[in-house]
Specification:
66% of the residues lie in helices and 0% in strands. It is mainly alpha-helical and 257 residues long. Helix 1 packs across helix 2, helix 12 runs parallel beside helix 14 and helix 14 runs parallel beside helix 16. The longest helix has 18 residues. The mean pLDDT is 94.
Amino acid sequence: LVEGGTLPMEVMGVLIGAFGSAGTPVAQEALVDLIQSESMTPGVRMSALVAMAEPKRPTVEARKALCSLVNPEDRRGLGSTVLLVLGAMTKRMIDSADPAAADLSSFLLQQEASFRAAGQETSFLNALGNAGSSKGFDTVVSYLENPSERIRGKAVNAFRHMSHQGVAGHLAQALQDPSLSVQLFALKGLHGRSYESNSAKAVQDLLVSSTSSQVRKMAVNYFGKHRDREGVLEVLREVSLQDPNEDVRVTAEKFLF
């Protein structure tokens, strides 16, 4: 029934979700068959592809099948989306200490030239961000000075899952980027990491200098997360009294009690 494509889309969606959650070799094989079947609608194939990000132990056959579909020229179809799924798959493999994650990380990095040639740098960086492999650290760093603020933002966001010791320094430096979106990505990245005095100093400087209430509020939330650290309550107290935006002041105040 599934292969015949005669089931209602709602039912197909439930089955595809169940295959992804099950993650067994048989379930993965079924998903790959749906992805590769040209008789299936684009929606079914895309849903099956997204579901392949779920299995914690993707089979060799499934990985090979997805790698063979990568095509940066297919901007809105399977060819580009599959790289994002392979990134998420890599993250799951890293988290489960699967040694094959290193090979998949290398495969992702090997796609840089073709995705850059196709003007798909953002998709490539999104895939590296999904993977969170420290093998991609130097490649991501190379995009931080790109003239496009969109690409710089995607590069900063790609650091979010990386454990590389150099990430915090680059996130702190990105707080000085002239782009508001880049600053917000950097703050989001620092919020998800452990407290470091140098990063905190950079966030405090931004809190004082930024004209954006959105940026200042996110900076306040960063300090709120670390309010048990020395000197942080003083920063929050000052903001609660002096920030020109009421929402920012109220946000700071709630962390004081």
